[in-house]
């Protein structure tokens, strides 16, 4: 008589991720339909400065266009961070609870940083400079988030993630962010020079310290 040993079949639930990816692409379609001309200029951001010249006023920062793409950007970045955590052995890529935690942390971190920036800009009297500077950063970072979305989609449904691929993607993201920073500084150099002292304080307090703090927490957690 043959003895049979049954093993439970573990099926990863990816339905929630599929739904979120569909929501992300749905938000992009909605944004394109509601803001057709603006979206057309936006997707050419890396090749033309037309978008930045037309939508440079601070009133556009909290508009529907940026809000819709901000949510898409959060979903994209949250998925990528979860994939990195999964590869490093800190969680499963199909763990929706972990995704919610990452998404919530990113949302709170970004919105809190934005609120503090508004307070400090008002205190230093550099509201116009910071709002225009932020609008430029938001535009480029949103663009990067959209480019990252199909990458995370492919990586999520295929087990092809490796250390070299992770570091390559992170390196590319950092380089693009650095270039956009330098580009923004070049555009607003005259305005920055006129308020250089306060701008340096702003950079140290809100563009360097928060990310250094995050780096410290991550390295401490890994140790």
Quick structural gist:
With 223 residues, this protein is mostly helical. It has helices spanning 15-34, 36-42, 50-54, 64-88, 96-124, 127-157, 163-187, 189-194, 196-222.
Tally of DSSP helical segments: 9
- Run of helices and strands: HHHHHHHHH
Report how far the terminal alpha carbons are from each other.
52 Å
Name the poorly predicted regions. 1-11
* Radius of gyration from the alpha-carbon trace, in angstroms: 20 Å
Structural class: mainly alpha
Fraction in beta strands? under 5%
Overall body shape: globular
What would you note in describing this structure?
- The chain is mainly alpha-helical and 223 residues long.
- Helix content is 78%, strand content 0%.
- It is built from nine helices and no strands.
- Helix 4 crosses helix 5.
- It starts with 14 loop residues before the first helix and ends with a helix.
- The N terminus is likely disordered.
List the helices and strands and how they pair.
Layout: H1 15-34, H2 36-42, H3 50-54, H4 64-88, H5 96-124, H6 127-157, H7 163-187, H8 189-194, H9 196-222
Helix pairs in contact: 1-2, 1-4, 4-5, 4-6, 5-6, 5-9, 6-7
